[in-house]
Design goal:
CATH superfamily: RelE-like
Number of strands: 4
Oligomer: single chain
CATH class: Alpha Beta
Radius of gyration: 13 Å
Largest sheet: 4 strands, antiparallel
Strand order of the largest sheet: 1-2-3-4
Number of helices: 2
Mean pLDDT: 84
Order of helices and strands: HHEEEE
Helix content: 25-40%
Length: 94
């Protein structure tokens, strides 16, 4: 299973074909800011239905079309995946 960083790289590579360098930088900053917000607001976003069967409390927040999937374990927030929400949701289940 690819790491969250590898998945973020894949998402950004996808957007490189569609956005200018400035727009790509803005997208990355937005994604990073949303990710940082998780450290201040536990339980932000919605439960991720495609991973509910794992019973690990996966949640999601959205930045643009990018879904940031994470879970909370005690006081630790772990980003699990970055996913373009226009893609097939079955790919999240890998």
């Amino acid at each position: 299973m690819p790491s969250a960083l590898e998945r973020l790289t894949e998402v950004l590579d996808f957007y490189k074909k569609k956005l200018s360098e400035d727009q790509l930088t803005e997208l990355l900053i937005g994604i990073m800011d949303r990710g940082d917000s998780l450290g201040h607001s536990y339980g932000l976003g919605q439960i991720e239905p495609t991973l509910e069967n794992l019973e690990l409390g996966h949640r999601r927040i959205i930045e643009g079309h990018v879904k940031i999937i994470y879970r909370i374990d005690g006081e630790v927030v772990t980003i699990i995946d970055f996913f373009d929400s226009r893609m097939n949701p079955q790919k999240v289940k890998r």
